[in-house]
Amino acid sequence: MESRKKKILRAIIEKFIETATPIGSKMIYEEYDLDVSPATIRNEMAVLEREGYIVQPHVSAGRVPTSHAYRLFVDQLKYNLKLLNQAKEDIELVRRKHYLKKAKERLYEMISILAGVTNNVSFATLPENKRLFYMGITNVLRQPEFQSDPASATQVVEVLETKFSDLLGQLEVTDEPSFYIGEENIIPEIKSCSILVQKYNYKGFEGIMGILGATRMNYAYNMAALKSAIELLN
């Protein structure tokens, strides 16, 4: 096939793939720099139609490629480095979004389980935006020390909803469990509590997982539960 006719056919195929609408000579002339007149494009399209590469779906419409045209197009395809890199970037982006969604689902699941087995508040920072979520606040509110001191209980809830995420950013959190007990906590409103924190890593997403409860919490069991939850996360 002649070079000019091939360029016009390629333009028709590419534009039809993009728009899914019949392609006219005017569109080809305006959007592709083929260095030919609209009349020449029309003439070449007429030849392409006679040869079976394009068809007119109905009267007064543009033309669409046939299977014959796609076969010619595909047989002449070569690896395009730019498209190859773009495809890799697109796949990585979708893969990361997929794993991010899975990470959030897994974290919600593990935090719910952790709150149930420890009978305390369990929490985690979400990947990407480091937003905090927690479960089990009623576990703490049912504890005798908070039932006898509603004001203290209210303060704990307020801290969780407002300041706690900032607090975690100030703590030294490692791959091993770390305790912050009572008055060791930076925020005065939760000095009636102890906090246990540890880093997690799920498919490249990192964050903090932990437990908050009264200072009389079962430290040994909670440490084992947190460590187990992070291991199960993976």
What does this protein structure show overall?
Helix 5 runs antiparallel to helix 10 (219-233). This protein has 10 helices and 7 strands. The model has no long low-confidence stretch (mean pLDDT 88). Helices cover 55% and strands 16% of the residues. It has helices at residues 3-19, 25-31, 38-50, 67-75, 81-118, 137-141, 144-147, 150-162, 164-170, 219-233; strands at 54-55, 64-65, 121-125, 132-135, 178-181, 193-202, 205-214. The strands form 2 sheets. It has a 5-stranded antiparallel sheet, sandwiched between helices. A two-stranded antiparallel sheet has the order 1-2. The chain is of the alpha+beta class and 234 residues long. The longest helix has 38 residues, at 81-118.
Helix fraction? 40-55%
DSSP strand content: 15-25%
Rg computed from alpha carbons, rounded to a whole number of angstroms: 32 Å
Mean pLDDT level: 88
Question: Numbering strands along the chain, what is their spatial order in the largest sheet?
Answer: 4-3-7-6-5
**CA-based shape:** rod-shaped
Q: Strand pairing plus helix content: what structural class? A: alpha+beta
Euclidean distance between termini CA atoms: 57 Å
Stretches where pLDDT is under 50 for at least 5 consecutive residues are none
Largest sheet data: 5 strands, antiparallel
Q: How many β-strand stretches?
A: 7
